[in-house]
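re: ur msg from earlier - yeah i can do the inosinic acid complex, just paste it... oh wait u already did. ok heres what im feeding in:
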Amino acid sequence: MAPAAREPLPEPLLSREKILRRIGELAADIARDLAHCEELVCLGVLKGSVFFLVDLVRELPMPVAVDFFQTASYGSSSSPGEVLIRKDVDLPLRGRDVLLVEDIVDTGHTLNTILSILRLREPRSLRLCTLLDKPSRREVEVPIDYLGFSIEDRFVVGYGLDYGERWRNLPYIGVVPTP
Ligand code: IMP
Ligand code: MG
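and the outut:
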């Protein structure tokens, strides 16, 4: 039997080299701002940010604790922007320095919800680091402290980002070909 035809690969937008170089710069900024920090709690938003978080924390000089938060959107037109919490953070956050790590900020609803919840835990500091930002899509303001790349309004995949769970393991960030 002939092998199944492969789908065309996403068109490259950001190479792995470019992403890793930028992560080195972000880590240097974070290390400088949090030089006093005894331990930084890095919270990844599942699942997309895992790939970015892993590369980022390995560049940080201070001791790091890692935990995860997971959300989903109801995807219903009757509750636009309403975010469902699937998994809460396991670690206590009160009085600790926290860095929330996300793959992409789109409308801003997800991070707006997560940040509101985390603030209630009274961390000593709470900062947001996102690899990508699509500012033209924003519906609610989100304070981004560390940004990898600002991109245009295109649906991107790879380096953790998926389209229906596909393409997360692509080593670069690309745009899915539209049929
Ligand atoms: P927001 O709540 O609209 O900011 O949505 C953020 C979430 O939507 C991200 O965490 C991603 O899971 C998903 N998302 C938004 N834009 C893209 C994209 O271009 N590719 C893949 N996922 C995306
Ligand atoms: Mg996400």
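cool cool. The pocket of inosinic acid (ligand 1) is lined by residues 48, 103-110, 155-157, 161 (CB under 6 Å). ping me if u need the other ligands too
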